[in-house]
Design goal:
heterodimer; B: alpha/beta; Rossmann fold; four-stranded antiparallel sheet; 8 helices
């Protein structure tokens, strides 16, 4: 098995994900509509309620829309990661995942390829969102669009791996609704996506710590910094560490000798 | 060398014993029917052979490669048609087969040639660009068989491939696979609960409640059971 074998396999998985994405146009639109509703309605309403002080990486006062933009980018990736894992559960229930799992390729490579394919799709969604968001005057420096890319890769990998791990642990498609209630919403709300951490600390100390150690906060913050071509080592390391943890759990989850897949009949 | 060697394989789901010391082997060119009622353990056995599950006890070798220790080499040799349909309904036939080819490291150019050949063989070359969703059950099954052969496996595993199909489609698929077996020396393990899919001279393994009750040629099984037909033998052995 040579490098060409792995490249072909990776390309095949990415192409399939892209084709599924193209065929499911409503998925693309709903992925865009969701953050735009937050931006256009929620942020407009909250602008007058919540004043945002100058905090890094911002060098001046910013509008609330500008503040929540990185959070909404992370939201796109979080939902995409969950959508991808939902499709894993669906594929498993429908049987099409078996095709992938019985191919003569190491399981870790398949999981990683599937994950990266999902991340690439989420990056397309993010740039489409940024294009529309520019009408709300969310215009980062031009260099920010470039420096955002590696951050998107890492944050997407982290959130995708979390979704992948959850999909290995979820027994049935119906249980996925629980994931929405117990994972997506708490992760999103208990983070720095909608309000700065110092604001939360003023209100509740325990909630502040929950937000501070929430992996989603790390994703939001590396996106926020990278969007302004700045680098924050603390948040970057956090994302890398959480990515490794979630990825390891996902690979173990799909390992036939260890994972939960065997118990429920992959 | 044996195409498939299953030796003392057991499998449990919690306390429930799904397979109990299952033992049999298949030679290249053999068409072997794994006959058992629903819930007999056929799908569990397929999941172990294809490494969807890990076999904790016993040995499974495919052309000399141990599935547990050398799964990648072992999996290269097998083509699988699962009981559940596994095609992506939103993709075309060609896209589905290209995806499978990529998973087996086959280049796009080579895959195109192989896809054309396989679809021609099942008489569906004119439907290459059609979405799988628009195909009938029988056509989908034939595409799945074509897909399982794209990477030129030496062992073909089919788990209840004709369930839910009309008589015409069943016959077509059965004949196609039996022809492959004869012409290309392909070893085939065909799991079914439909006794009429068995012809004279074929090898049969009767499995019930996770145990192999008997295996051998149809005639041998009939003689041993002291009955007249394979149906009677099956009914007598599984005590229906």
């Amino acid at each position: 098995m040579n490098i060409l074998f792995f490249i072909r396999c990776f390309n095949g998985i990415v192409l399939r994900e892209a084709l599924r994405f193209i065929h499911q146009r409503e998925r693309f639109f709903s992925a865009l509509v969701r953050p735009l509703v937050w931006l256009g309605i929620f942020a407009a309403g909250f602008r007058s309620v919540l004043g945002v002080a100058i905090i890094p990486p911002y060098e001046t006062y910013i509008t609330y829309e500008v503040y929540i933009a990185p959070g909404l980018i992370a939201m796109i990736q979080l939902f995409n990661g969950m959508q991808s894992s939902l499709s894993m559960v669906y594929d498993r229930e429908m049987g099409s995942m078996k095709t992938m799992l019985v191919s003569p390729v190491p399981r870790w490579f398949l999981i990683l390829s599937k994950l990266l394919a999902g991340v690439l799709v989420s990056i397309l969604q993010v740039y489409a969102f940024l294009l529309i968001a520019s009408f709300w005057n969310i215009v980062p420096p031009i260099s920010g669009y470039v420096t955002l890319l590696p951050a998107l890769l890492f944050s997407g990998l982290m959130l995708g791996a979390l979704g992948m791990f959850l999909s290995s642990a979820i027994k049935q498609l119906e249980n996925f609704a629980g994931v929405m209630n117990f994972v997506i919403f708490p992760m999103f709300f208990a983070s720095s996506a909608l309000y700065p951490l110092w604001k939360i600390e003023e209100t509740s100390e325990w909630l502040y710590y929950v937000c501070l150690y929430n992996p989603f906060t790390y994703a939001v913050e590396i996106l926020r910094f990278s969007l302004y071509s700045k680098f924050n080592i603390e948040y970057s390391l956090g994302v890398i560490i959480f990515s490794i943890i979630f990825l390891t759990l996902a690979i173990l989850g799909y390992d036939p000798s260890r994972g939960s897949i065997q118990k429920k009949g992959g | 060398m044996l195409a498939l060697d299953v030796n003392d394989v057991s499998h449990y789901f919690g306390d429930f014993c799904a397979l109990d010391k299952v033992k049999f082997s298949i030679k290249p060119g053999d068409f072997t029917v794994l006959l058992g009622l629903n819930g007999a353990g056929k799908t569990t056995l397929y999941s172990l052979i294809t490494r969807l599950y890990n076999n904790r006890t016993g040995l499974i070798n495919i052309y000399g490669h141990n599935v547990r220790d050398n799964s990648i080499e072992a999996l290269k040799h097998i083509g699988v048609v699962f009981q559940q349909p596994t095609l992506d309904l939103d993709l075309s036939i060609e896209e589905n087969l290209q995806y499978h080819s990529a998973l087996h490291g086959i280049s796009k150019k080579e895959a195109k040639i192989r896809i054309t050949n396989e679809l021609k063989r099942i008489g569906m070359l004119d439907k290459t660009k059609m979405k799988v969703r628009s195909l009938s059950g029988g056509q989908r099954r034939r595409v799945e068989i074509a897909r399982s052969l794209i990477h030129k496996p030496k062992l073909l595993l089919l788990d209840e491939p004709t369930v839910g199909l009309d008589i015409g489609s069943r016959q077509l698929i059965l004949e196609h696979v039996k022809n492959l077996c004869k012409k290309e020396k392909l070893a085939v393990l065909w799991a079914t609960h439909l006794i009429d899919e068995i012809d004279k001279g074929e090898k049969v393994i009767i499995i019930n409640k996770g145990k192999v009750l008997i295996s051998g040629d149809v005639d041998k099984i009939i003689n041993k059971a002291r009955v007249k037909t394979i149906r009677d033998a099956f009914n007598k052995l599984v005590k229906i």
